[in-house]
Specification:
The structure holds 2 protein chains of 2 kinds.
Chain A: H1 5-21, H2 48-54, H3 70-73, E1 77-78, E2 81-82, H4 87-99, E3 105-107, H5 111-114, H6 138-144, E4 154-157, H7 163-176, E5 185-188, H8 193-199, H9 206-223, E6 227-228, E7 230-233, H10 235-239, H11 244-264, H12 269-272, E8 276-282, H13 286-307, H14 313-316, E9 320-324, H15 336-350, E10 355-357, H16 370-385, H17 400-422, H18 426-431, H19 434-451, H20 479-494, H21 497-512, H22 518-526, H23 531-542
Parallel strand pairs in A: 1-10, 2-3, 3-4, 4-5, 5-6, 7-8, 8-9, 9-10
Helix pairs in contact in A: 4-6, 7-22, 11-13, 11-17, 13-15, 13-17, 15-16, 21-22, 21-23
Chain B: E1 5-9, H1 18-29, E2 33-36, H2 43-52, E3 57-62, H3 67-80, E4 88-92, H4 99-104, E5 109-111, H5 117-135
Parallel strand pairs in B: 1-2, 1-3, 3-4, 4-5
Helix pairs in contact in B: 2-3
The chains are: A alpha/beta, B alpha/beta.
C-alpha cells in the first residue's frame, strides 16, 4: 500500500528530525513474542477531517501529542510533589526519591510560605511546616537543595503569589553551586488567577499580581531561558469541584489572559509563549480525561494561532504536567486508592502527559508516608515499563467515542471562554463571581449525587466494611514550628540588617516606579531578607486581596 | 422548624473550601441561615463574626493539619468573649486519633471524611436546639 502523502511528509520532516536527534528508547519496541509495536496507527484513508482535527504528533493541531515520538522517545518525567516540615527533612526526602529513580523534584511549600508570611508571623501559627516545607530566607533554600546538583535536575515549585521570591532564592542557590541561571531547569507554578477562584493562596489584587508574572516572564526570557515561567493550572479548579469542561475552559482562559497581559506589557510573543506550561488533573473517568487532554492541546494550539497569530510551533504546543485527583481519594479502605490512582495515571499517560505525580493511598488521611509514596511512584513505573501503553502514540485516537468526546469538550470549553470574553475577561469574572459560582454549582451537584447514592464511590456509599483505623499517619512534630522560628531569628541576628533594609527600600521604590522587580528581589534575597519582609514591602505598595463575599 | 443561624468558618491559611462550601450550602438547603466566613480567617475573626451574627453554632473546616491548634483556638476565643455557650463542630482531614483531643478541647463533634451530610445536618440541628434551649 502506498503511504498517504501527508503521513509521508510527517515522517520525512517532524519524525525524521526528532529521530535524528533523539533516538527512541528501544529499536524496535516489541510485544512478548517479538511482534513489533507500531509507532503510530493511522486510518487507511487520511481525509480532511483527520488532518484538521487529529493530525500527527508534533504537528498542528497537536491533538495526538506535542512530540513526534512521544513516550517512545522519552518517558514522562516522574515527579512526586513532596516537602514537609523543615528544609533539612525535605532535603532528605528528595535525595531518597532521586535514589528511587525519580527524575525530577517537585517542592511543596507550607502555607505561610505560599502566602508570603514568615514562620514567626502570627498568621502562621499552627501552619508552619504542615503541608510543605517552610522557607523564610535564602538559608532555608540552601539547606533544601544541599547536595542536589541544580544543573542536573529539574525542579518544579508550587508557588504562586510570592513566586518571584522563591525563584530568586533558587537562582542564588544555583549561583552558589556554580550553576548559571541559563542552566537551571524547572517550573514555578506562578499562576495567580486560579488562586482567586480555587486554591486561595493569593496575596495581592489581580492587577499587580499580573505585573509580577509578566516581570518574571521577561527576566526569564533573558536570564533563565530553560525555566518554565508558569504552570497554568486546571488541577485545583477541578479539585474545587469543576467539571472536566470547566477545568479545560477556565485553565485556557487564564492562559490567554497571561498571554495578553505579557503582550500589553510589551513582551514579544515568540519569546515568552514557548515557556508556558500547563498542569491538569487526572480524574477517574478515564475516557473523558483522555479526551480532555487531547482537546486541551488542540484548543490551545488554535487559540495561539488564530487569536494571537503565532507562527512558531513551540508557542502553540501545550505541554502539561498531570497530578492524579486528590479529591477522589477516600479515607475508607485506603488501598482502593491505589487502584484509583492507577486508572487516573493511565488516563494521563494515554492523554500524552509530559510529567506526572501519582498520589499516595493515604492522602485522604494525612500527608503520605514514605511507603505509600514509593507505591505511588511504582504505579508509574509499572505503567511505563509493563503495560505497553507508552510504546505507541495516542493509541485511543480514532475511537468514535474518544474523538467525539474530544470534540464535545473542546466545544463546551470554547462556549465558556466565549462567555468569559463577553463578560469582560477573566479578571472581571473573578470579581463578579462567575467562575467561582460555576465551580461551586458543579461541586454541589456532584456531592449531592454521592449523598443520594446516584453516584457510587466504592467503600464510601457502597461496598462499605467496618474498619479499624490502623493506617499509620505521618505527623509533623509541633516542635518544627518553634525550631523554624528560632532558625529565622538566628539568620536575622547574623545578617547585615542595614544591607537588608537598603535592599527592601530599593524594592519599594522599584515597585512604585513600575520597574521590573526581579533585580531588586534578587538583591534582597542575597542579603538574606526574608520572604515575609519582601512580601510586606509589596503589600505596602500593592495592597492585599481580601476575597469575595460568599 | 425554627430557622437556626450558623456560621461556617475556615480558620488558618488553607484555601481548600470545597467541603466548607458544600456544608454551608447543604445547611442552607436544609433551612438554616448560613454565614460563611470565606477562607483564611483567624480564630479571633471567626469568634467575633459568630458573636456579631449571633449564631447558634459554629462549624469549622480544615484540610491542612492546622486543626490541632486552630480548632481549640476558636473555642478559646469564644470563651474569652463570653460566648462559650456557642457550640463548635469541626470537620476535614482529621485523623481519627486526633478526635479525642479535639473533644477534650471543647469541640462538640468532629466529622471525618465520608460522613453523610444528613448526619452533619442532624448534628447542627441538635447543637442549635440545645444552644437556644440554654439561652431561653
Amino acid at each position: 500500500m502506498k503511504t498517504p502523502k501527508e503521513l509521508q511528509s510527517w515522517q520525512e520532516n517532524e519524525l525524521k528530525k526528532t529521530l535524528d536527534r533523539f533516538p527512541e528508547r528501544k529499536d524496535p519496541f516489541t510485544t512478548h513474542g517479538g511482534r513489533e509495536v507500531q509507532r503510530l496507527a493511522v486510518p487507511e484513508e487520511i481525509d480532511r477531517n483527520y488532518l484538521e482535527n487529529i493530525g500527527f504528533p508534533g504537528r498542528y493541531p497537536y491533538t495526538r501529542g506535542v512530540q513526534p515520538t512521544m513516550h517512545r522517545g522519552r518517558l514522562w518525567t516522574m515527579r512526586q510533589y513532596a516537602g514537609f516540615s523543615t528544609a533539612s527533612a525535605s532535603n532528605e526526602r528528595y535525595r531518597y526519591l532521586l535514589d528511587q529513580g525519580q527524575t525530577g523534584l517537585s517542592v511543596a511549600f507550607d502555607l505561610p510560605t505560599q502566602i508570603g508570611y514568615d514562620s514567626d508571623d502570627p498568621m502562621s501559627l499552627g501552619e508552619v511546616g504542615k503541608v510543605g516545607v517552610a522557607i523564610d530566607t535564602l538559608a532555608d533554600m540552601e539547606m533544601l537543595f544541599d547536595r542536589i546538583p541544580l544543573d542536573k535536575i529539574s525542579t518544579s515549585m508550587t508557588i504562586n503569589s510570592p513566586a518571584m521570591v522563591l525563584l530568586a532564592m533558587y537562582v542564588v542557590v544555583a549561583e552558589k553551586q556554580g550553576v548559571r541561571s541559563d542552566k537551571i531547569r524547572g517550573t514555578i507554578q506562578n499562576d495567580i488567577l486560579k488562586e482567586y477562584v480555587a486554591r486561595g493562596t493569593y496575596i495581592f489584587p489581580p492587577k499587580p499580581s499580573l505585573r509580577l508574572i509578566t516581570n518574571i516572564f521577561q527576566w526569564c526570557a533573558e536570564q533563565a531561558p530553560l525555566f518554565n515561567t508558569i504552570s497554568i493550572s486546571g488541577y485545583h479548579i477541578r479539585e474545587a469541584g469543576s467539571t472536566a469542561a470547566q477545568e479545560l475552559a477556565f485553565t485556557l482562559a487564564n492562559g490567554l489572559t497571561y498571554v495578553q497581559a505579557a503582550l500589553d506589557a510589551g513582551l514579544e510573543l515568540e519569546v515568552f509563549a514557548r515557556r508556558l506550561a500547563f498542569f491538569f488533573n487526572g480524574s477517574s473517568n478515564l475516557l473523558e480525561e483522555v479526551a480532555k487532554f487531547r482537546a486541551a492541546r488542540r484548543l490551545w494550539a488554535r487559540i495561539m494561532k488564530e487569536r494571537f497569530g503565532t507562527t512558531d510551533p513551540r508557542s502553540m504546543m501545550l505541554r502539561f504536567h498531570t497530578q492524579t485527583a486528590g479529591s477522589s481519594l477516600t479515607a475508607q479502605q485506603v488501598d482502593n486508592n491505589i487502584v484509583r490512582v492507577t486508572i487516573q495515571a493511565l488516563a494521563a499517560v494515554l492523554g500524552g502527559t509530559q510529567s506526572l505525580h501519582t498520589n499516595s493511598r493515604d492522602e485522604a488521611l494525612s500527608l503520605p508516608t514514605e511507603d505509600s509514596v514509593r507505591t505511588a511512584l511504582r504505579t508509574q513505573q509499572v505503567i511505563a515499563h509493563e503495560s505497553g501503553v507508552a510504546d505507541t502514540i495516542d493509541p485511543l485516537a480514532g475511537s468514535f467515542f474518544i474523538e467525539q468526546l474530544t470534540d464535545t469538550l473542546e466545544r463546551e470549553a470554547v462556549d465558556l471562554i466565549g462567555q468569559i470574553d463577553e463578560a469582560g475577561g477573566v479578571v472581571a469574572c473573578i470579581d463578579n463571581g462567575f467562575i467561582a459560582s460555576q465551580i461551586e454549582d458543579a461541586a454541589y451537584q456532584y456531592q449531592q449525587e454521592i449523598e443520594r447514592g446516584e453516584r457510587i464511590i466504592v467503600g464510601v456509599n457502597e461496598f462499605q466494611v467496618e474498619e479499624e483505623a490502623t493506617v499509620p499517619v505521618l505527623r509533623v512534630d509541633p516542635k518544627v514550628e518553634d525550631e523554624q522560628v528560632a532558625r529565622l531569628q538566628q539568620v536575622k541576628a547574623e545578617r547585615d540588617n542595614e544591607a537588608v533594609q537598603q535592599a527592601l527600600d530599593e524594592l519599594g521604590r522599584a515597585a512604585r516606579e513600575d520597574r521590573n522587580l526581579m533585580a531588586p528581589v534578587l538583591a534582597a534575597v542575597r542579603a538574606y531578607g526574608s520572604l515575609g519582609e519582601i512580601c510586606n514591602v509589596l503589600r505596602g505598595v500593592f495592597g492585599e486581596y481580601r476575597g469575595r463575599q460568599w | 422548624m425554627k430557622k437556626y443561624r450558623v456560621l461556617i468558618g475556615k480558620p488558618g491559611l488553607d484555601g481548600h473550601d470545597r467541603g466548607a462550601k458544600f456544608i454551608a450550602r447543604a445547611l442552607r438547603d436544609a433551612g438554616f441561615e448560613v454565614i460563611y466566613t470565606g477562607i483564611r480567617r483567624t480564630p479571633d475573626e471567626i469568634a467575633a463574626a459568630a458573636i456579631h451574627e449571633d449564631v447558634a453554632a459554629v462549624g469549622l473546616s480544615s484540610m491542612s493539619g492546622g486543626h490541632v491548634r486552630l480548632f481549640p483556638a476558636v473555642v478559646d476565643a469564644l470563651s474569652r468573649a463570653g460566648a462559650s455557650d456557642i457550640p463548635v463542630l469541626g470537620g476535614g482531614i482529621i485523623p481519627a486519633e486526633d478526635v479525642p483531643a479535639m473533644i477534650e478541647a471543647g469541640i462538640r463533634q468532629i466529622f471525618t471524611p465520608g460522613t453523610k451530610v444528613e448526619t452533619i445536618i442532624a448534628a447542627f440541628t441538635e447543637a442549635c436546639a440545645q444552644q437556644h434551649g440554654q439561652r431561653e
